[in-house]
Design goal:
about 300 residues; mainly alpha; about 0% strand
C-alpha cells in the first residue's frame, strides 16, 4: 500500500473523528463553560500524548517548541471562537461553517505569497460564501452570534492548516502536534481561571465525551494530521476535509436529531460544491488520455 494512500486513509479517519466532535462538544458544553471544557480536553490530550510518545518529547528542540507554540496559539484562537459559538448555534451548522476554511486556505496562502489566487479558488470561495448565507442568515439578513463567532474561528483554522503545512516538514511531526495541544490546554486553563469558575465534571456521560474528544478527536487527530501531511498533497488533504461537515451532520442527526432546513441543506450543498471546485483539478480529470501512450509501452518493453 502506497504511503500517500495510507496518509489519505488516516486523514479520512481524522475527518470522521472531527465530524463527531461537534455534537460531542455541544453536549459537553451543557455542563462546562467553554474555556473550562477546552482546558480539560487539551490538558488530558497533551498529558496522554506525552506519555505515549515520551521518546519524541525527550528529543524536543527549540525550533519544534517555537513552531509548536506559534501554531498552538492559532489553534487556541480557532477553538476558542468555535467553542463559544457552539453555545449559540447547532452542531451541524457549526461544522459546515468551519468547513469553509478549506476554501480559505488557497486564498490566504496566495495573499501571503503575493500571488493572485487561481480562478477555481475564487469561484469556489464565492459559491461557499453564498452557501454560507443560505445556511446562516435569517429573514432579516442578520448573522446569529454563534454563526459569527464560528466564522471567525474558520479564518484561524485556515491559518492552522497553512502553518502546519509549512513547518511540519522541517521538524518532528509528533512533537510538533503535542506542543500545539499543550499550548491550547495551557492557554485555555489561564482563560478559565481568569474569566470563569474552574469546575471538574462529575457525570459519567460528560467524562465519556471528554475522553473521546481528548484521545480520538485531539491526540489522535492532530498527531495523524501533522504526520500524514508529509506524505500526501494539499489537494488530497483539503478534499478529504470537505467530508467533515457531512459526518458532523450525520452524527448530529443520529445523536441529537438535529435536522437542517431545506434552505440550510441547499446552503450546505453550495459550500461543499465550492470546496470541490476550489480543490479538484477538473481539467486534469476530464483531459486525461483515454489510451496509454504507446511510446512509453515500447520503451518499457525494450
Amino acid at each position: 500500500m502506497k504511503r500517500q494512500f495510507k496518509a489519505d486513509l488516516a486523514l479520512l479517519a481524522v475527518t470522521v473523528g472531527w465530524g463527531s466532535s461537534f455534537i460531542l462538544s455541544k453536549n459537553t458544553l451543557t455542563a462546562l463553560e467553554p474555556y473550562n471544557f477546552l482546558a480539560i480536553r487539551f490538558i488530558i490530550s497533551g498529558v496522554m500524548s506525552s506519555l505515549i510518545f515520551y521518546k519524541n518529547i525527550l528529543r524536543l528542540d527549540k525550533s519544534t517548541v517555537k513552531y509548536g507554540f506559534f501554531i498552538g496559539f492559532i489553534l487556541f484562537t480557532a477553538y476558542a471562537f468555535q467553542t463559544v459559538g457552539l453555545n449559540y448555534t447547532t452542531a451541524s451548522k457549526s461544522a459546515f461553517i468551519t468547513g469553509f476554511s478549506v476554501v480559505l486556505v488557497p486564498v490566504i496562502s496566495a495573499l501571503f505569497l503575493k500571488k493572485v489566487p487561481e480562478r477555481a479558488a475564487v469561484i469556489g470561495a464565492v459559491m461557499a460564501l453564498f452557501g454560507l448565507g443560505f445556511l446562516t442568515l435569517n429573514g432579516s439578513l442578520a448573522l446569529n452570534i454563534g454563526d459569527l463567532l464560528t466564522l471567525c474561528s474558520t479564518f484561524a483554522f485556515a491559518m492552522h492548516i497553512i502553518t502546519v503545512g509549512k513547518y511540519t516538514a522541517s521538524v518532528d511531526s509528533i512533537s510538533l502536534a503535542i506542543v500545539q495541544i499543550g499550548t491550547v490546554g495551557i492557554l485555555s486553563l489561564i482563560m478559565t481561571l481568569t474569566t470563569e469558575t474552574l469546575v471538574i465534571p462529575k457525570g459519567s456521560d460528560v467524562w465519556i465525551n471528554l475522553v473521546i474528544l481528548s484521545l480520538v478527536c485531539t491526540s489522535g487527530a492532530f498527531i495523524v494530521q501533522n504526520t500524514a501531511q508529509k506524505y500526501t498533497s494539499a489537494t488530497h488533504t483539503a478534499l478529504i476535509y470537505t467530508g467533515e461537515p457531512v459526518f458532523a451532520a450525520i452524527f448530529a442527526y443520529f445523536i441529537s436529531r438535529e435536522v437542517l432546513t431545506p434552505r440550510g441543506l441547499f446552503g450546505a450543498v453550495l459550500i461543499l460544491t465550492g470546496m470541490l471546485v476550489a480543490e479538484v483539478d477538473f481539467k486534469c480529470i476530464f483531459n486525461r488520455p483515454k489510451y496509454p501512450d504507446t511510446r512509453i509501452e515500447k520503451d518499457r518493453s525494450a
